[in-house]
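Example S7 (structure tokens).
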């Protein structure tokens, strides 16, 4: 795997130092820049080849969400923030992950692995499954075409959540992450509705894997998944068995 070039934008020096330390512990990551000023960082990010941006949200003059929206071709981005209330806005921007400070190293590694998994598992030559041959569907599992045109069995009970990333869906399972070119709309039809629920336009979760719900975030394994306001009541009714 090629080195992932990283850039940090955070107006707090201690936060930058922590992320720098974490990056130094992962050989596949290379730090190419740090900035405490969003406006200054705009030019630097555009000048450098940046694969992964660690971006704070609550910053003066230009916040992280505004900064990301201003980029014509934004790199993969992981938000690093002390505020969980921005999660819905962040995931609507197709960010890789949303880390809430203080950030444990284990959680940092989980977020970075999502970048590695995406780079490895989504080759440009992948052929859309709907154009070659359809998914093979059974009661407890289904087959999907993944990288290298391989048909891979996905057991429903092993899936933690499914995430949309552009034209692709990432299956986060208890064993690994698999990527296939298939829409979440199609997956809603395939996966059993008794166990799987679309909580956000970019996420389908396995209800059995939910550990807690904290406001607009669902805690599931080591991840925090956003739930849109329009789906929150339906999910509450489903998990509380409220038929009223």
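Recovered sequence:
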């Amino acid at each position: 795997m090629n080195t992932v070039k990283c850039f940090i934008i955070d107006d707090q020096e201690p936060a930058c130092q922590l992320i720098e330390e974490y990056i130094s512990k992962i050989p596949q990551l290379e730090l190419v820049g740090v900035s405490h000023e969003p406006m200054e960082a705009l030019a630097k990010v555009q000048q450098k080849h940046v694969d992964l941006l660690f971006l704070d949200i609550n910053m003066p003059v230009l916040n992280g969400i505004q900064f990301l929206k201003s980029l014509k071709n934004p790199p993969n981005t992981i938000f690093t923030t002390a505020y969980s209330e921005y999660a819905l806005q962040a995931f609507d921007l197709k960010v890789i992950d949303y880390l809430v400070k203080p950030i444990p190293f284990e959680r940092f590694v989980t977020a970075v692995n999502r970048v590695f998994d995406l780079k490895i598992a989504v080759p440009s030559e992948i052929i859309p499954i709907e154009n070659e041959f359809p998914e093979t569907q059974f009661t407890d599992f289904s087959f999907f075409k993944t990288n290298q045109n391989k048909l891979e069995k996905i057991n429903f009970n092993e899936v933690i959540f499914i995430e949309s990333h552009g034209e692709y869906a990432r299956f986060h399972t208890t064993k690994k992450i698999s990527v296939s070119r298939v829409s979440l709309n199609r997956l809603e039809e395939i996966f059993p509705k008794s166990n799987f629920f679309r909580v956000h336009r970019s996420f389908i979760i396995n209800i059995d894997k939910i550990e807690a719900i904290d406001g607009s975030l669902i805690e599931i394994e080591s991840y925090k998944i956003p739930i849109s306001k329009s789906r929150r009541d339906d999910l509450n009714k489903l998990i509380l068995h409220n038929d009223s």
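Notes on this example. Confidence is low (pLDDT under 50) at residues 121-135.
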